[in-house]
Design goal:
By secondary structure, the chain is mainly beta. It is built from one helix and 21 strands.
Length: 278
């Protein structure tokens, strides 16, 4: 008769105990992790403010993203905020108001409080026509659609996307990508800048832009327009390029656009124009 190889009873019991202890430790770690990030139900708040005609708006949100939409013609600024709050975390203070001649939208935490894991506040602004707007999102994304104001946007690793804005655009990131689609025709004499340290920069325009576009990067330059390229070997960025889109005005009336990324792609793209076949 063949004898089956068996483990001593003591070894079996020890192995089972070790496995049970490991599972208990794993379960305890998961429970602790869950306890650390017990999220409350999101808090949503709608606010509306009547602005003085032409009053500038300043948004500073180091705790999340900022989204902007066109808000009409009546000098009415509407704000929708969404707060995600872990249990026990310090609460945001959020009281938009006029300060030093600007309408300031700037959520904050109490002095000395740190942003908790999972904690954030995201803002949606409906911006009325003719109110210059500056946004600093620090770590979040910024998105603008259809605004009729001059805008100045800044973030770090977040992305910036601008579509269909009627007004000048300034956009700057550290690592995030920038993508801007401009309406037909840059304002005479205006200077617009789209600058990222390490992110890509893309500009979509039509032939009616009527501006000179200057580009610089150590990466690729891609375009649907004719370029004049200057190589700067040994420098960073190591090349610059310029293109003329449409028919820019001469002298001080000439509109200019600067696109710059230190180490990523810069792309100037032509928007397709619909032509009725009839």
């Amino acid at each position: 008769m063949m004898r089956r190889a068996t483990l001593p009873l003591l070894s079996i019991l020890l192995f089972a105990a070790m496995g049970g202890h490991a599972r208990a430790q794993e379960g305890e770690a998961v429970a602790q992790q869950g306890a650390e990030v017990q999220m409350l139900e999101p808090i949503r708040q709608d606010q509306g403010f009547k602005l003085a005609k032409g009053a500038a708006i300043s948004v500073v949100n180091p705790y999340g993203s900022v989204f902007m939409r066109f808000g009409g013609y009546e000098d009415q600024l509407d704000i929708r905020s969404t707060i995600q709050q872990p249990e026990g975390a310090a609460k945001f203070t959020f009281a938009p108001a006029m300060r030093d001649g600007r309408f300031v939208v700037a959520p904050s935490l109490p002095a000395g409080a740190q942003l908790a894991e999972g904690q954030r506040i995201d803002l949606v602004l409906y911006v009325p026509q003719g109110h210059p707007l500056s946004v600093d999102a620090a770590i979040g994304d910024i998105e603008c659609r259809g605004l009729r104001s001059d805008i100045d946007l800044k973030t770090g690793p977040g992305r910036i996307q601008v579509i269909g804005t009627q007004g000048t655009v300034q956009a700057q990131t550290d690592d995030g990508r920038i993508e801007v689609t401009l309406q037909d025709g840059a304002r005479e004499g205006s200077v617009q800048r789209f600058i990222s340290r390490t992110g890509s920069v893309t500009l979509n325009v039509s032939d009616k832009l009527d501006a000179e576009v200057q580009m610089s990067t150590s990466h690729q330059i891609a375009t649907d327009y004719s370029l004049t390229v200057r190589h700067l070997d040994g420098q960073e960025p190591n090349k610059t390029a310029s293109a003329v889109v449409g028919e820019p005005k001469p002298g001080e009336r000439r509109a200019r656009i600067e696109m710059r990324s230190l180490v990523n792609e810069v792309r100037l793209q032509r928007r397709g124009v619909f032509i009725d076949p009839e």
